[in-house]
Design a protein that fits this description.
The chain is of the alpha/beta class. It has six helices and five strands. A hairpin with a 6-residue loop joins strand 1 and strand 2. It starts with a strand and ends in a 9-residue tail after the last helix.
């Protein structure tokens, strides 16, 4: 199925600008998208990382388990759906001095995120915000392969989410 809706937005609310291009592949996201301020979430995240980019761009695909499972299987050899996948642009492809730095793509699965939010008794929007911030940090080069890396990544997530009165997702 090809994406149905395409939007491009830019925020001027924050000193660090984030352009977000969105595509909706699964219509179940439609009732939620207006309440998501992706640019603000990502710009807030940038204030907590050592970053040299003034203006960045990311793409978001609002998808589902079937598509995410296929991507997870193809790229990570895991034949299961997951809540979020990030595909960062290799740093070697960044153009020095470019006005806008394209960081990569984030893909989110509706069913997995919805079931996790219900299971963990979290507001759906808060869980989506956490996973968008998490995916964005992957685009910035963060990972959670070691305990130290995971702690560093989680600390940034927690601080960014606190700016929107979202509680620590790890407790």
């Amino acid at each position: 199925m090809s994406p149905i809706i395409l939007t491009k937005t830019k925020t001027e609310k924050h000193p660090l600008s984030v352009n977000v291009t969105q595509a909706v592949e699964d219509r179940r996201w439609d009732n939620h998208l207006d309440s998501f301020d992706l640019e603000a979430w990502f710009a807030a995240t940038l204030t907590h990382v050592p970053q040299v980019f003034q203006e960045t761009e990311v793409s978001i695909l609002w998808s589902n388990d079937a598509h995410v499972r296929a991507l997870n299987h193809h790229y990570r050899q895991k034949n299961t759906p997951t809540n979020v996948l990030s595909f960062p642009v290799p740093k070697a492809l960044f153009t020095e001095g470019a006005a806008v730095v394209y960081l990569g793509d984030i893909i989110l699965s509706f069913e997995t995120i919805d079931s996790e939010a219900i299971r963990d008794r979290k507001p759906f929007a808060h869980h989506v915000m956490h996973l968008c911030v998490h995916g964005f940090l992957h685009l910035l080069g963060f990972d959670h392969e070691t305990d130290n890396d995971a702690s560093a990544m989680e600390a940034v997530e927690i601080r960014a989410l606190q700016q929107f009165n979202v509680s620590n997702p790890y407790i």
